[in-house]
Amino acid sequence: MATMEVEVTMRTLYPAAAALLLLVAGCSGATTPTTTPSTGASSGSSASAPPTPTPSSSSTSSPEPTEPGEGSGQGAGAPDDSGRFSYLCSSLNEAVPDVVAYTSLAEVWASSEYVRLASCTANYEGPVPFEPTEDEARIISIAEPGVPPSEGLEAYLTALSLCSRVSDEAASELFGRSSRQMLQAAGELCPRAPQGRVIGFWASGERAADGEYAVTNDGLVPGKFHLRKTPPEGCTWSVTASDGSTKASGGAAEGQSGILLKEKDVLTSDKCGIWEKIE
Questions:
Q1: What local confidence, expressed as pLDDT, does residue 94 receive?
Q2: What's the pTM value of the predicted model, to 2 decimals?
């Protein structure tokens, strides 16, 4: 009788025990999930402690900005940067075509043939009638005082031509025949040109060519001048005083040694080339 009661009791408890064992097994097998930071959490961290900004290449490698060149006022640094002008240049090099075309002063200055160019002629390619910019009008007023800027296109083209390229061979004709005002206008127009300093010498009265030059406020400055290069055969020159009397004269040798010019003197030169002030 006792045996039967034990057996009945075991049969009653076994299912409950089995269920309990399964429950325990399930709990012990569960794993705790690993928390992985989300992308949003990372962005939030960056926002609270933003990374040090990396300077762009333009902020680290670009040079200090420079003032735009005197001239059209368009801001690119060259006096003809409005794109309204072109240039036809003759060459000293026989291997190069007689005339070379350029679209800007910057292109003329950067040409590999620059030092072999004789001279250039500037041309206007813009709308008609010519309407000068503020800076162009200023240059025209220096070159031809009293002329309305709207009528000063030829004066502005002459100043541009002087800014392009003038070889020593062409200097007597172009620089030497230009008025003091025109040379000053060109000097104002393109002080950064390859020949900017040369234009300045002519504009200030420190250079002269073949022809007649007086020592005045609008002409040569007083001082000692000499010939820059050995002149060809036939060079003759003379210096006369205000009363017309001859103070000195000579040829190539004396010209290279130097001559003294004083107020109101007049230098007359023929086939001698360029004179420059040395003292």
A1: 76
A2: 0.69
